[in-house]
């Protein structure tokens, strides 16, 4: 699973306003021929990214090339179960990437149009955002 090697700060503030509006960067296809584009905003965990990547590589039988255009930089914390209120913030539990509408999530090349569309469509089912497959 994806995780940053090191962080400037171990715990980050939640910042839910990150999800408002549309993406301004990462909205164009840069590497491949086909891409999966987010239609809504959400926080995508490293587990969800890995699940979608696995679906793509499995469906294409490891053919072609896949680019992951997102990375989970943001740590989310969680307190242990049945811990009373107070006594500080919990320990980092997982890493997420805040994705806005219009952001390119995955790109593919080196496979047929039909295979790419089906693989990216199946990967979209693994993510908590509405997605669509686009072509360069």
Characterise this structure:
The protein has 2 helices and 7 strands. Helix 1 packs antiparallel against helix 2 (113-125). It has helices at residues 46-59, 113-125, and strands spanning 34-38, 42-45, 65-68, 74-78, 91-99, 104-109, 131-135. The strands form 2 sheets. It has a 4-stranded antiparallel sheet, with helices on one face. Strands 2-5-4 form a 3-stranded antiparallel sheet. The chain is of the alpha+beta class and 136 residues long. The chain has one domain (27-77, 90-135): Ribosomal protein L16/L10 (Aldehyde Oxidoreductase, domain 3), CATH 3.90.1170.10. It starts with 33 loop residues before the first strand and ends with a strand.
Please tag this protein with its features:
alpha+beta; 136 residues; 3-stranded antiparallel sheet; Aldehyde Oxidoreductase, domain 3; 4-stranded antiparallel sheet; 7 strands
Topology:
Layout: E1 34-38, E2 42-45, H1 46-59, E3 65-68, E4 74-78, E5 91-99, E6 104-109, H2 113-125, E7 131-135
Antiparallel strand pairs: 1-6, 1-7, 2-5, 3-6, 4-5
Helix pairs in contact: 1-2
